[in-house]
Design a protein that fits this description.
- The protein is an alpha+beta fold.
- The protein contains 4 helices and 10 strands; from the N terminus they run αβββββαβββββαα.
- Strands 1, 3, 5, 6, 8, 9 and 10 form a 7-stranded mixed sheet that branches. Strands 2-4-7 form a 3-stranded antiparallel sheet, with no helix packed on it.
- The longest helix is centred in the first third of the chain and has 20 residues.
Length: 187
């Protein structure tokens, strides 16, 4: 009886240890440790043409050194709630591995606490929608440890619209879709 109980206790301890090693990171557990801005022209932005100027830095409300574990910054283009409605393939989940909000990687760069900027030309395969920018800071293991976004918590302010390149438009102008998406002829 005692050995059965001991085996049970050991298996529970091992299970808890393994679960903590492979624990899923929850968005709700991350601190907003980055300040991000996204500048672009007024109006609807065109995929494949327009640029967004991104700037980010360490959130000054955090104590000095709080970013000592930060190694990289990964910046994403993310769907705003209006572009997620009735689209389960864009659904927001608290578990980052299951989250479909930020499907477009813009850039991954080494972390610096200030002076970060990147000019991003909107890629040609970005679908029509309303978006915002979010960045995650990664530790040396590649795990998300903080974030920042150019919108408020409810994802209402500072959103922008992108118009996709449509297949019909490509057909009408006589340019094969492959060339428009990749800039060169296939083959």
């Amino acid at each position: 009886m005692a050995s059965t109980r001991a085996i049970f206790v050991v298996s529970v301890v091992i299970s808890c240890f393994l679960a903590s090693c492979h624990a899923e990171i929850l968005f709700s557990s991350l601190k907003k440790s980055l300040d991000i801005s996204a500048s672009h022209r007024e109006g609807v932005l065109m995929a494949g043409e327009d640029q967004i100027i991104l700037e980010w830095s360490f959130n000054k409300t955090f104590p000095a050194g709080a970013d000592s574990s930060y190694k990289k910054v990964k910046v994403h283009l993310c769907y705003a709630p209006i572009s997620q409605k009735d689209r389960l393939w864009r659904k927001t989940e608290d578990h980052l591995k299951k989250d479909k909000t930020c499907q477009f990687n813009i850039v991954t760069m080494p972390y610096k606490s200030s002076g970060n900027s990147f000019n991003w030309t909107i890629e040609r395969d970005v679908p029509t929608g309303t978006y915002f920018i979010r960045a995650y800071v990664l530790d040396s293991d590649g795990h998300e440890t903080g974030f920042g976004q150019n919108t408020d918590e409810k994802k209402i302010d500072n959103l922008f619209d992108i118009q996709a390149i449509s297949g019909l438009l490509c057909f009408l102008c006589g340019v094969p879709l492959w060339i428009l998406l990749h800039g060169e002829e296939k083959g």
